[in-house]
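Format notes (please read before filing issues)

Several people have asked whether sequences and structure tokens are stored in separate files. They are not. Every record keeps both together, in the order shown below: the sequence lines, then the token lines. Line labels are part of the format and must not be stripped during preprocessing.
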Amino acid sequence: MKIKVCVKVFFAVLFLSTVIRPQAQNRDVMSAYQRNMQPLVEKISGASTDNERYNANELFVQLFEEALNVEESFHWKWDLGTYVSVLTSSDRQFRIITWPVMRDNGEYECFGFVQSYNPKSEQYDVYTLHDKSDEIISAAEVLLEPENWLGCVYQELIETKFEGKTFYTLIGWTGVNALTQRKVIEPVCFRGNTSKPQFGQALFRREKNLRRVVLEYSSKAMVNVRFDEQVVRTYENKKIKKKNRTINVQVPKEEKMKMILFDEIAPMLPGMEGLPQYYTPTGTEMAYIFNNGRWELRDNAQGRLSDPKLNKDFEPLPKTAPAYSVGG
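Then the structure lines:
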């Protein structure tokens, strides 16, 4: 009996050692990568010349790719400061890592990786993102892949659901050059039974060719884009009796819901259309609300922030309104 117990204990210890040792080794390996990468981030963000920034970035990309190919690296919690954005979906389907490199002339180039789950191999694959912003025509309308990516630093990952399917939408920013900057609202998906990401989906209702929202505006302006629970004014169809007959009217109401709230932008002066360096916020807030598997544009949304000093009230609600105001 004692021999049987000893044998069971021996195999239990052997099993635990085979599980724990690789995990401990992986932690040591990932910690070493992070220690070596941290000073490179500081050079990328703070060095004084193009050569210094790009030399540091080249090594950073190499080390990062190696690290992401380490077994179980998807579960490593990266801490590389605010300069490198790391966003992970709640379902562990993918992780997207992005950062910018600024050139001496004020232009930006973005870099990144996608680490995504492959259902066939049951492993995470790694894709390098290549910023081809200068070569992409009709950026709002084209389907893009890692090899030709509209480079930006993603600041927020939104997850919405419809009919059991999860939809992923990214909010990103990049400084284009010394004159302009850009914010992007961009869906990302994984086609079929693969791990390869595709950027841009036709999820924008009543905007047939739109695969992403691209806001390019003056480098001196501030444009707000965020996902939040805010207030939108909607109109409900109702039948009322008036002068012995029934008529249809739309009754306004204020409704709280989650939305991508953003500033409308336009040229500062007439005649500057198509010149993004002169585009600034108009003071009007727009919103995309996820409805039945699509992002629906509303031009009657208004953010209500938690800070009372920043709150803005709607104008008084009319008793009825002739039409439901929807942008797009």
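For reference, the curators noted about this record: The two ends are 78 Å apart (CA to CA). Residues 1-73 form one domain.
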